[in-house]
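Many introductory courses stop at the sequence. We go one step further.
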Amino acid sequence: MKKYRLAYDYVFLPNDLNNGIYYKNENITDIAIYIVFKVIDKLTGKEVYFQHKDLTEQTLEYAKNKYCYVNNFYKCVIDENEIFKMIPNEKLLKESNYTILYEIGECFKWLGSHNPVLIEYEEFINILKNNLSEFNNADNKPTQSTSYYAVEIV
């Protein structure tokens, strides 16, 4: 049986939603980072994998008869000192039967179209860092999560 981790996007929107920002001669309308989540069972210390790659969102039973999405464990926010940071949902993590770890996945920018362009993490950070005031708004405190994908573990 195939095993998967889930990766959720966190979308950073600029102040000017209609025009975006101009950076290195590109009109960037928004940028996103995917965070890949690792779910560890607190009792066994073993990783818990998702079993389906399909496009239905998969929930996690974090306590008896209590379910949530994996991205509910952390919020992503713009930060003047750290560029962006992941803020844990302490209440949910404490109540949960799992430890939730994360790592950086893919990063994207949109150039005024509906088709994202894959970029390196360094470019993602540079766009945010060099335009921090353009992204420092309520839409990014926390950012929006609009999609996810499954990462197959081999």
